[in-house]
Each structure stands twice: as structure tokens, then as C-alpha cells.
Amino acid sequence: MNLITSNKNGSIWGMFLNAGENGKNILEFNGDDNKIETKGNANNVYGIKLNSSTNGNNVLNFNGKENKIETTSSNANYVYGIELNSSTNGNNILNFNGKENKIEAIGDKNNAWVYGIKTSSTNGENNIKLKNTNITTNSNYVARSIEISDENLGKNSFEIENTNVNTVGNYSYGINVESSDKNNGSGENTISFKGDNTFNSTGGKSAWGFRIVKNKANTGEGTKITSDQDSTLNIVSKGNAVSHGIYLSHEENNNKTNSTFDGKVNINVLTNDQGYGVYHKHTKLNNSTNTVFNNDTFISINGNGNQKIAVYNATLENASDDSKSIISFNKKLAINGAVSDPALVSTGKNAEINIAGNDDVNILGNIFTSNKGKVTLNLLNKNSYLVGLAKNNGTGIIDMKLANSSDWFMTTNSNINDLDISSGAKIQFSKTDIPANLSIDNLKGNGGIFKMQGNVQTGETDLLSIKTSSEGNHYIEFEKMADSKSTGTEVLQLVESLGKPEDHKAVFSLLNEDNHVAVPTDDKKPSRPKAVIEKGAYVYTLGRATDSKIVSINDANVNNWYLFPYEDDGKGKLTPGAESSLSFSNTIYQINLLNTETLVQRLGEIHFDKTNLKPHNVWIKHVNGKYTSFANDTIGSFSTHYWGFKAGFDWLNLRNNWINYNGISVENLNASTYPKRFEGKTKISGKGIGIYSTWLNKNNDIYIDLVGKMMWYKGKYDIVNYSNENIKSNNANINSYLLSIETGKRAYLLQKKEKAFYIQPEMQLIYQFVDDYTLHSSNGLKSMTKNSNSLIGRIGFRAGLDFYGDSVLSPYIKLMYNKEFLGSVLNDLNTAKIEMNNKDDWFNYGVGISHENKKKGRQIYLDVQRSNKHLIRQDWQVNLGLRYSF
């Protein structure tokens, strides 16, 4: 059936059903294709109009497969796709039951009011069922796809199923519900959603998905909106000036609006000025508004607007006790927008926003309350988070519960009322350079984590301020900053507890990566080491003022908690990275000690060769050993295993009574250092080149040995710190230079043909210079080691037997006294200057043996030594060499 109507003047109707007193009209369209098309430039253009009064009854059913209502006008002031009016017990019933239903209303006039479906009831009733329906409403002025007017005077019921509503106008409304503009009354309006429904509203100036405005009293049931559990409701609102998803405003006393969405709800708002996802407002004292989302809810606020709020709830500060405005989210909730925009705003008495947290809750945006308004936020699983600040402005209420590894990324200062945090839930303070303050009235729960940061150099830090009471065991995860310029004397207050001391029972501990370690009460020692964090070159821990031993904190409040230098036997403690940087310089010093080798360790026994001399010598030797450095006031003990090869070639010259060896040498050395306090190691390798000139007087056995060397070292460390973090340094390059002079005389005490006993006093002076170098660790620590000087003197003797024959064998023992006259090394750890002083004296003692086969011109020599305990103890060292003369 096709019905086409057109007219140029007055009013025009495509279909008009009027049921007067006790009248009844029933009309059904059962054909496959039904179309009512109305065109005209009349003042009022109607596609369909149903009017009932005084017990009249209209029933209009569209049962066909395809049903279309098309109403267009280029000059009408008012365009209606369908209008329903009922009064004085009149009843209108409109059902769209077809598989494809279409309602289209278009008005091109600049001041045209265009309605898709408009209902009005004054003591009457309208019942509309929209199933599988597309509603399109276009206007250059006002476009309202579904309009319920005079909501406080009668009864209107909409059942909407699998319907798409597209509204375009300068002022665009998907659903609009309004009171009578004249009278108070009693009305009841219901809107129920089934299946999948979408509302798209596009406004040149303003756009509303749902708008409910009540400016006259309604003593009836008010407005009820529901959706089925398996349904999905999509609301898209795009307005250049104002955009709303769901807008509820009660502007007169005695109004009620209750919305219960058991299905999924998606709200998308785009605006260049003001935008709201869900909006409640009471401007009079006695009103009730309750909106409940019982299924997954998604709210997105986008655009360039300067006032974008996802959920807004406002009442009067002096509202009556039974006047309430409540918005509740009981399942999954996602709010996406700019982090700087408000996500939840509640202001006024009995204005509440409740987030149950029964599923994932993801909120981007801020929370504000004022004038007794309240927000209750629960983040109860690991996938839930809030990114933004929370402020109650001193007159509002914000209660939060976080549990089970949920997160709050607090962007700046926040103040709330009650905080219940437990089970690894985390509040991460602002990651900016500006410290953040979280102020709460009451702290509850157990096992909450507060992730904070601060600057030990300036003293600026995040702060948790508790005004009234606290309980539970909680943790502070303080940001490690190995690049900080700390001196090991700084103190930062992290927790402030106000009010009565007896009301504060919370205990705070630093969060260790592998364990939660309780902080001791007052000055009692912990059964296990405290958790620590790194700030610059030093280690810090958490405790009360009385726990601090390195720095005195003048605070009698035992409920305040501070970050202060970790105390280790009365001293501060360096970080493993800092210790490794210092031990690195010590390892360089130890390797350089290898270069203080004696003549016999390098060339073997030159006293064997006084006759039948050959002009050239080539030699090679292997060195292997271990040092132990003992803990001091600065660093812990560590051990160094070293090994390497040295080789050389020299030319022999006879100068009167002197035998002169002039030669060159090359070497390759390696060292690995292992700390005792933590895991990891330092590896250093070195290559060197040297020259030497050795003189032996063949008449009196006096010798002089002159040596010059240049070494190139490369090294780095790879360690695990106290928090089980892997820390690595770059490869540092170091240059080192050596000058040495050694002299001695072999004196034979008992000499026979086949053997002789000798004693050989020796003395040596060695100067070494090490260039400055820099180590950069992966966690930000920067260690600059200044150039250093070493001057070591050695005096002692060797005593042994020379056995003569076709070959010569010479075993010996030795005892040497060594003294370091300089040895100071200055390290700059992020500007914290630490001097390592190697000035000390010690004894070396050992044994050796040399064997020379004169016929083959070959000598094998072995030297084994160790030292007594001093700053650096040589546990053992083996020199094994081979020299060949030709």
C-alpha cells in the first residue's frame, strides 16, 4: 500500500485517526510493502497523527514486511513523522512489527521544528512499540526523533527493540522528555530497550542523546528507563557547542527519574565546547534521580571542548534528606577522555556516584566532589585503574577502595576521605618533577603500595598525609634514582600522620623486589636486612625518626615515616654500583701491582750468565694469582683473580765489567673481581708495551734494572643490586704508565765447586700514573675517577743455593717489605667525592726456583709468593717463565 499526500497551505496529514468520546479506530497494515509519504509546504506537515480523547481508543499496527513513513517539507514550521495525542482517558497504540520499518521526517526551513515521533498525554495514555525501526530526523533548526511532551500530565510508554535513530539539526535530540510548560500534575513515562539500539545525534550547535528536563512538578511515578540484560544501547552525540549522552535535569520539586540499564551501554560524546556523558542536576530541593548501570558501560568524551565531563551529578547543598541523585556503575566501566578532564564530578547533598568495582574499571580523568557530594570508587582487580587526580575540595566526600593489584596513577595533588587499600593495590604518585601530595582522612586495609619519588638534593618529595587515623601494614615503593646527586646525609619525609597518636597504627615498609621486609619499631634491629633503595651513590631505607642513626631527625611523632641513609655498623652504605665503581679503581691498582715485578720474576736468574754469553734473549712468562680486598669504612670486601702472559726480546752488550740487556716487552693481562656483598663481577683486560735496560756487574754481582711501561686497560662491571636489579656499566678505557728502578747485590756466603749459598739484598722504587676515566652505569650512576699517582718502595732479600754442573739449579726463599707512599684515588660519584687511600705497607714472602741448561741456552724459572694481611692481601701469585738465549 502506497499513500501519497501533498498540499501547499494550512496543515496536511498523510493519515489522521481521531477517536472521540468512546470512539475506537483499529487499523492494520499487513501487506509486504506499506508506505505513507507526505509532502508539502503547509505550516504543519504530519505523516501520521493519532488523537484520542474521552475514552477514545486508536490502534495502528504495521505488520507488513516493509513499512515506511516519509514526511518532508521545505517550508513548514512543524514537521511530524508521527504524532500521538491522548487526553481524558484516551488511548493510542502504535506498533511497528515489521522486519524493516522506517520513519523519516525532514524539514528544510531555517526555523523548522521536526519530530520523528511526538507524544503528548493529558490524563490519557500512549503506547508505542518500535521494532526493527530506523528513525531519521533532519532539520535546519530543531530535530527531535522521539519526543515525550507533557510528561507530568499523562502516561506514555515506549518499547524500543533493534532500532536505529539518526538525528541531525542545529539542536539535535535523540530522545527528549519534557514537562508541561503550564501545569503541575501526575504522570508516568516508561522507555524500555531490547536488542541492539543506536542513537546518533549531530548538532550544529547542540546535540543530546537522551534529554529529560522537568520544570513542573510530577507527583506520579515520573520517568522510568530500562534495558534488558542481553541488550546493547549505543548513544553517540556530536555537537559543536554542547553535547550530552544522557541528560537529566529536575528544575522543580517533586520529580522522579529512575533508569536501570541491565544491558550494555556505550556513550560517545564529541564536542568543541561542553560535553557530558551522563548528566544529573537538581535545581530544587525535593527530587529523586537514580541511574543504575548493571552491565558493561563505556563512556568516551572527545573533542576540543574546554568543559568535558564523563559523569556529572549536582544537587543543592541544602537538599532535603529524602531528595537523592544517585548514579551507579555495577559492572565493567571504561571512561576514556583526556587525563586533564573531569571523569566523575559530584556536588551537593545526597549527590552520589558509586563505582562498585565488580568487574574491570578503567577511568581516564579526574574526580571532584564538593558541597557534600560523594564519589565511592572501588578498584578491585588487577585490570582496574584510575589515571587522574581526586579532590574533595574540603566539602565533598571521596571514598576509595583498591585491592588485588589495581592501580591509581595520581597525576597531581589529591585529597580524599577514606582510603581502603590492600592486596598489592598501588597508588603511583605523579611521575613529573613536581612532587605530589596525597591527603586522606582515614587509611585502612593491609598490603597497599604507595609508589613515590623525590629529589634528595633539593629535599622535594611526594608525601602521604593522613589526617585522622591509619591501620594496616603498607609498603612504599620509592623510585630509585642512581643518577641523583646525593651525599648520604639527606632525609625525606614520606608519611605525615596528624591527629591523635593513638589513632595511627599503620606500619610502612619499603617494597623490596623479592620480599616485603618489615621496618623495626624504634631502634630494634631487624631480623633480616631492611629493604633499601638507591639514591645516587648511597643506599636509603625507611623508618621512623628514631630509626635513623646516620642523621638525627628531630621529630617526636613516631607515626611519621622518613627515608634516610641506611646504617651499617654505624656508617652509611654505598650502592652496589658505587661500590663496584670504587672496587674498579682498586682492581686497576691491583693489576698495576703486577707491574711492580722484580727482575728475577721477569728474566729469571741473570747471575748464571757471566761467560759464554749469547747476544740475544727471548722470554715468555705466565702470571696467575688472586688478591683479596678487605672491607673498610667505604666498601665491602672483594676478591680479584688475575692472569696473563708477558713476553720480551733483548740484546746483550758488554760494557767493561757490565753485562747490559736492553729489551722490549709486551703483555696481556686479565682480571675478574667478585664482590662479597652482592652478586656480579668486574672484568678488566689490559695490553701493554715496555722497555727495559738491565745491568749486571760480573765482578761484584751488583745489578741495576730500569723499566718503563705503558698499559691500556678496558673494563666494565655487571652486577645485581640489593633489589635484584641487573646493573651494567659501559666499557671504560684507562691509560697507565710505569717507571721502575731496582738494584741489588748477590753475596755468596759459602761457596764450593758444586754449590754456593747466597743472600741477595734488593731494593726497588716504582712510580705509576693512571689517567682519569669515567664509568656510566645502566641505572644512571656516573663515576669519574681522577688521575692518580702511586709510589711504592720495596726492600728485602732473597736467600738460596746455586747448584753447578752441566746445568744450574737455584732454589730460594724471599722476604720483602713494601710501602706505598702515595696511592690516593679520588672518585666523583654524581658529584659525591669519595677518596680511596691505598697508602699502606706490607710484606711479601715466597719461594722460587730457576733451572738453566747452558748447552741449550734455556732457563725455566718459577716464583710463588703471597703477602700478609693489609688493605689488599695477595693470597697467592705464581710466575712461570721461560728464557732462551741464542
UniProtKB/TrEMBL annotation:
InterPro entries hit by this protein: Autotransporte_beta, Autotransporte_beta_dom_sf, Autotransporter_pectin_lyase_C, OM_autotransptr_brl_dom, Pectin_lyase_fold/virulence, Pertactin_central
Superkingdom per UniProt: Bacteria
Autotransporter domain segment(s): 611-886
Gene Ontology cellular-component annotations: outer membrane
NCBIfam families linked to this entry: autotrans_barl
Name of this protein: Autotransporter outer membrane beta-barrel domain-containing protein
